[in-house]
Amino acid sequence: MATVRLDQKARALVRAVPDSYERALARYFGEGPTNVPLARNQHAAYCQALEAAGVEVHILDTDHAHPDCMFVEDQAVVVDGIMLLPTPGAPSRVNEQPPIAEFLMKALDGIQTCTMGGEARMDGGDIIRLGNLFFVGRSSRTNDLGIASLRSLLDFFDYELRIIDIPPHALHLTSITSTPSDQHILVPEGYLPKDAFGVLPEGSEIIWIPADEAYGCNTIGLSNGTVLIAEGYPSVKQALEQRGMVTVELDMSEIRAADGSLTCCSLFY
Ligand code: CIR
Description:
The chain is α/β, with parallel strands linked by helices. The protein is built from six helices and 15 strands. It has helices spanning 36-52, 97-107, 144-155, 173-176, 234-242, 253-256; strands at residues 11-15, 56-60, 77-79, 82-85, 112-115, 127-130, 133-138, 160-165, 178-181, 184-188, 205-209, 220-221, 226-230, 246-250, 267-268.
C-alpha cells in the first residue's frame, strides 16, 4: 500500500474478486465491470506480478456480499508497525473491514491498532507516502476528522502530513497519483494545482503526465526496482523508464471499470 516505504513492501494482502463484482461502485474512471471471469484473470496476473517481484502475497477469501471487497487498500493503514482502521467513506464498504483487520492483527502479532470514532471518515486510498513525508487527500471519502486521526498516528513518528484537496472528478488521491519510488510522485496535468504538494525534499521530483493518462499515474513501486504500471499509458511508461525504473505492464481494464487501480488491490504490511 502507498503508506509503506518501498523497502517495507515485502508482504501484500489481496482479496479475490467476488461474484457480485458487477455491482461494484463506479463513478469516475469506470462505468461498472461487466466481465467477472476477466477481472479474475487480471487479478491473478496482478498477484503473479507481485510475486515475481519478490512480494509474499496472501489472498484473503472474498466476500460475495461486498462487491468492492477486492479494494483492500482502503480498509487499513499500516505505518511502521502501527495500524489505523479507518471508518470507510462509502457506507456500503464499512463491513468489508473486519476480516482484513483480523488477518492483520494475527499477522502482525501485537500491533498497536487505532480506530476512528464519530463522524471521522477515511479511505486508505487517500494516502500516499514519499519517504517520510505523507500526503492525504481530502475527498468525498476522507474528511477533516479522518485526517485528524491520521495526523495523530503520524505525530507519533514525527512524520509530516500535507493535505491535498481532491477535485470532484476524482475518487481518491491514489486514483490520480502514486510514488513509484521514494523520490518521485506521478501526477496528471489539470487535476491538482502545480503547488499542491508544497516543497518536496531535495532530490525528489513531481513527474507531470498528460491528463488523458490520469489513470496510469497509479503505479506500484517495489523494492527490487520494478514498477507495476497499467497497460496502455505510454507517457507514464516512458517517464519512469527514462528515470531508470523497470516497468511491468498489467491489463487493468476490468479493475478500472470499478474505479480500482493497481494500489487499491493491495495492502502492504
Ligand atoms: C469504490 O468506489 O470504493 C471502489 N469501486 C473503488 C475503490 C478504489 N480504491 C482506491 O482507489 N484505493
